[in-house]
Amino acid sequence: MSINLKTIDNFLSNEECDELIKRSEDKLTDSTVGLNGEAKIDDSRKSKTYSLCNCVPFEQGIRKKVVEYLGIEDKKLEAIQLQKYEVGGYFNEHHDAFEGENLYRFGLASGNRVATLMVFLNDNSSGATHFPRLNQQYLPKKGMALYWDNLNKDGSINRDSLHAGLEVTEGKKYILTCWVRENNFDNVLDKRLFDEYVKGLQRNKAGIKIPQYSKSGYNLVHTPKGVLEAANEVLQLSENHTIEDSITKDYLPKGQTKLYPLDYHKQQRDTIVSLVKPMLENWVGIELELTSIFGIREYGIGSRLLWHKDREHLLISATIPVQFDVPWNLEVEDNNGDMIDVDLKVGEMLFYEGALRLHGRNTRFRGKSYKNMYVHFAPKYLLEPPTEVTTFDVAFDKPKGPQPTYI
What we know:
Blueprint: E1 6-8, H1 14-24, E2 29-30, E3 33-35, E4 38-40, E5 45-46, E6 48-51, H2 57-70, E7 81-85, E8 90-94, H3 101-107, E9 113-120, E10 129-131, E11 136-138, E12 145-149, E13 163-165, E14 173-181, H4 187-206, E15 218-222, H5 225-237, E16 243-244, E17 257-260, H6 266-284, E18 288-299, E19 305-308, E20 316-324, E21 330-333, E22 339-342, E23 348-352, E24 359-361, E25 370-379, H7 391-395
Antiparallel strand pairs: 1-12, 2-6, 3-4, 5-8, 6-7, 7-14, 8-13, 9-12, 9-14, 10-11, 10-13, 15-23, 16-17, 17-18, 18-25, 19-24, 20-23, 20-25, 21-22, 21-24
Helix pairs in contact: 3-4, 5-6
């Protein structure tokens, strides 16, 4: 099938090409390739790479030009990359689209690379881009772009898109590479979902299967008045007892949180547990034991909770908003595998099966403060005789081995 290969002369002006090269010179690092789900430096490629920053007007303008030409939403375009090939530089035959483990690692959220737009930033009589299955090649011509499709209509890789950057034998070669994704590009969420995928493989290999305890996977209920009263007492008493909430750093990109621990306020903590526990037991129909009660977590502007699953002992849980200035919807996976958008208000709490189902807040928080509390339980028959549970020995004690991220 055709890959819709075409050239676009003068896609970038001479001045734009020169400026891009100038901006990249002190920012280049060794180029990588995707190998078995990891980005690695490999002998199949010898070049340097700089990722354009969508934070300065000039580079924003280049990105806007690409988006407008392709007729796509900006969110579907990866960060644009500039590559530099010196004498001896090359890129062996490859497809831009991912397959196998690379697709799981780099495309679970963003999808595959639908198309490529590549722009030559200087002239060179070597270092052609070669399409062996089409018997076509293109020498670097300053400002000229190449466009091609990477996928067939059914989403499979179009094998005719196989291409290579032939060896540069004189001077230097600079190109700009733009990749379009099937979905909105989100490399952080790609990593998050890949971690969950690996975690699932590890569970299966170990024979661990998280059971389903409820009919729906989640339930929205009213928060008992005593729970909110106890939580607000903690906030009033804890102004000088907040701690940095480092446990969230991996799944909360660009957001900041702090924690109001409940360890200093046993009476309020016990009140919260005593009111929430019987409601959860009624929901799942079995006797429960507390496994973790984090303090009240305060999220700041820009916070974003990536979809994730909790650790295996955080099976049956409640998330309880205490105070906020702007609403922040929660997404939770139901037992059909659908992500449900929940508009959670103060005075409501959401029951969910956190170790079994994905959940999070995938849109960034736009307000200044969102205070929320989590209470986690497991079936009593699964646990050893209960021990004292604190924020410090549960929330910040990570088991050995490869670590997923979680609440």
